[in-house]
# Entry
Amino acid sequence: MMDHQHIADALKARMAQLSERVERLEEDLRQPLDRDFAEQATGTEASDANEALEGASRAEIAQIRAALGRIEDGTYGICVTCGESIAPARLEALPFAQHCIDCARGR
Ligand SMILES: [Zn+2]
# Structure
């Protein structure tokens, strides 16, 4: 069985970073918009961008959680569609990949 401990460590570190970012973004989003009109407009645009970033961060956290779960139950690195091993180079580039390159390409 392959040892994925170093991948698990890297994923956990990445997840901690993302959680911190989500917390910061949530704090920013809670700031009341009580400045004058012009500033309020830019404030709204900024919080739209923050919300998008928060959503992307949450999505990545969910993918990392799933990958950590697969490492734990020993199915990590196995394509969920065809059951073949996912190439190590692909896992390195995309640690939470669930599909081998062929299935990802829609073979
Ligand atoms: Zn596959």
Observations:
- Helices lie at 5-30, 37-73, 88-93, 101-104.
